Amino acid sequence: MPSDYRLAPQFAARLLGLTLIVLGLLVFVATMIVVLFSAPVMILNVTVVVAVIGIFALGWVFKQKSWVVRTTPEGYVVKWVRGAGTKQARWLDVESLATDTVAGSPCVVIRLRDGRTTTIPVEVIAADRERFVSELQDRLEAR
């Protein structure tokens, strides 16, 4: 049975905040184009509508599809983590599982038989750290 570990709320808020800044700048640029070049106001209207739709769409994505790690009996998949290394592997390819601190952040490091690694900062996961590591170990032992 698959298990999904969702994005921690503080990181979802950070991503949403960055998106709001970008969309706000887009609306500002559209406003300046309309004011400075006497462009049609429809440009600003369309930009605002696109920005509002973008905000709601991103909120929906975070609410419905914002898992960071998905584990299945066959393997795991990691997304939303920049610099995770190998984002997907089968449990049969895993050599070891360890916890470590990378750049001051507690992480789970999955070492694969071919030398590649997957590094998952546990702070980005909205779950108990011990439960997460325990499930990964259980999946690894069940392979």
What's the structural blueprint in terms of helices and strands?
Elements: E1 3-6, H1 9-37, H2 41-64, E2 67-71, E3 75-78, E4 88-90, E5 94-102, E6 105-112, E7 117-121, H3 129-142
Antiparallel strand pairs: 1-2, 2-3, 3-4, 5-6, 6-7
Helix pairs in contact: 1-2
Describe it for me?
- This protein is of the alpha+beta class.
- It has two domains: 3-64; 68-142, Pleckstrin-homology domain (PH domain)/Phosphotyrosine-binding domain (PTB) (PH-domain like, Roll), CATH 2.30.29.30.
- The protein is built from three helices and seven strands, in the order E-H-H-E-E-E-E-E-E-H.
- The chain has helices at residues 9-37, 41-64, 129-142, and strands at residues 3-6, 67-71, 75-78, 88-90, 94-102, 105-112, 117-121.
- The strands form two sheets. It has a four-stranded antiparallel β-sheet, with helices on one face. A three-stranded antiparallel β-sheet has the order 5-6-7, with helices on one face.
- A hairpin with a 3-residue loop joins strand 2 (67-71) and strand 3.
- The radius of gyration is 20 Å and the shape is elongated.
- The two termini are 13 Å apart.
- The relative contact order is 0.16.
- The model has no long low-confidence stretch (mean pLDDT 93).
Arithmetic mean of pLDDT: 93
Number of beta strands: 7
Total DSSP helices: 3
- The overall number of domains is 2
Question: What is the helix fraction of residues, given as a range?
Answer: 40-55%
CATH topology of the largest domain: PH-domain like
How many whole angstroms does the radius of gyration measure? 20 Å
